[in-house]
């Protein structure tokens, strides 16, 4: 069984590639450059014969994935722009996310005759309703949709453009399967903030968003505890398992899953790091103090429902403390080596 993973060098994808290889799959990854291909292959020296990497420099190009999808049994589409430093919302965020997804599905429909399922990594961004704020009393689940429009996102701030890119790409994927009725089915995963130890090649000069988010608690750059915008989290290792299960479980076809462990806040992050005997004192000193014990998730903030993912995908979720401590320990190890 061969699985295609797009954006295979990223934070979530590298962990997912590791889970696929551990589960006995052969993996074909796509990346944007030969340097990313080399870095990814270096991560898996012991099983390199089961992992191949192809370079797809521009996923919006016509037929970009036509060759990559040939002979694969399932596809995990994880690649999507995830950065908050963009100048052009359409060119750098909306178009690659939406056209990349549509182009991939078109390639599978026309050249991927062996493919029975495509799993799309969407996001809580595609579920959240910003107009409701913290929405006390609401419990987010798979029925929630972000209805931000393309026109609005074109000129909005980068965060809104990202959130819109995920919502609109997911909607495009569902429209594709509804209208084209292809030979494969679709399963969609919507994770919120993803924490946990990075398995990919972290760049401290240009970190991916999740590494940046945790690293700033250890680097001394935070003067105070940041305010929490998104209150749900999941560990990257559980999300990787969810990707594997989403391609294996027959009932996952044509379903959307909220992949969430529970709620957290940045104050809780700071408190957990400072209380842990595992975190070296030199790093604890860098963690902002804020107001310990305050601003935790409570009745003033929406809740999250992960029951569908547990029931159908059969997955469990790591608790917040484990996720945060393991991410911090891995980042400290990488910082010490840099
Ligand atoms: P990373 O930045 O680590 O990975 C993103 C991947 O997408 C990289 O392989 C990157 O390639 C690729 N990519 C980015 N832009 C493009 C583009 N224009 N064309 C082709 N490939 C591109 O982020 P994550 O691993 O965190 O994110 C992976 C997926 O998970 C994304 O779809 C993201 O939206 C989603 N997600 C992430 C969450 C999180 O908290 N981390 C939460 C919810 C969803 P390159 O290395 O060349 O830039």
TrEMBL record:
Signal peptide range: none
Homology family: Belongs to the NAD(P)-dependent epimerase/dehydratase family. Dihydroflavonol-4-reductase subfamily.
Name of the protein in its database record: Zn(2)-C6 fungal-type domain-containing protein
Biological classification of the source: Eukaryota, Fungi, Dikarya, Ascomycota, Pezizomycotina
Boundaries of the shown chain within the full protein: 566 to 903 of 905
